[in-house]
Amino acid sequence: MHRPAPMHTIPRWLFAALTSPLFAACAATPPAVAGPPSAPSSTTAGAVGSADESGKSQVCDLVCEQARVVKRADDDPDYHAKATEDANRVLERVRPELLACYKARVAVQPNAHGFITVDVIVGPDGHVLKVETTGGAILGPQTLSCITERLKGSTFAPPHGGGTLRIHVPFSLRRVAAGEDA
């Protein structure tokens, strides 16, 4: 009987490498965010401000939990660590596009927020084969589709030894109150 491999957390130092305020990528402890009681601790990504049609300033935030690459039974720990680092680099690069998907929803429904989990299946050549989202119904199908399409366009390092790789990433999407640190 095949048992699923254990999930491992990605090192936080990887996110600290980003210097752009747009990316402030998951390096600092986030402000308290109401979420599921069993939600794992998260790190915060930088907030992005804009103005709505009334001219009022609004700030949106994307809090991404640490990505976890599902370890394959035959992976050497060094290969697993490399896959995890690569997954975080790719997620950092696509973060502005994911945040844009959320900001488009906030423009239509200012109270939109959500907690979603994204599973990305990476093929032997590093291209994304499949993206699945769980949760986030209040974000609406267009937002979830936007997020899925942006992730499908990403390319990861090919899995060591061929085959596929599953990357599991929880996300929190929320607006940031005026004066609140993102």
Give me a quick take on this structure.
The chain contains three helices and six strands. It is an alpha+beta fold and 182 residues long.
Chain-wise SSE layout:
Blueprint: H1 13-16, E1 48-51, E2 57-64, E3 68-69, H2 77-108, E4 114-122, E5 128-135, H3 141-152, E6 165-176
Antiparallel strand pairs: 1-2, 2-6, 3-6, 4-5, 4-6
Features:
3 helices; 26% helix
Shape: elongated
Average predicted local confidence, pLDDT:
75
Q: How many extended strands?
A: 6
The topology string of helices and strands comes to HEEEHEEHE
Evaluate the radius of gyration.
16 Å
Oligomer state equals: single chain
Annotation field: number of helices:
3
Residue share in helix: 25-40%
* Class derived from helix and strand content: alpha+beta
For the record, give the distance between the C-alpha atoms at the N and C termini, rounded to a whole number: 45 Å
Low-pLDDT residue intervals, each spanning 5 or more residues: 1-45
Sheet with the most strands, sense and barrel status:
6 strands, antiparallel
Structure description:
It is a single chain. The chain is α+β, with helices and mostly antiparallel strands. Helices cover 26% and strands 24% of the residues. The protein has helices at residues 13-16, 77-108, 141-152; strands at 48-51, 57-64, 68-69, 114-122, 128-135, 165-176. Strands 1, 2, 3, 4, 5 and 6 form a six-stranded antiparallel beta sheet that branches. It is elongated, with a radius of gyration of 16 Å. The N and C termini lie far apart (45 Å). The model is unreliable at 1-45 (pLDDT under 50).
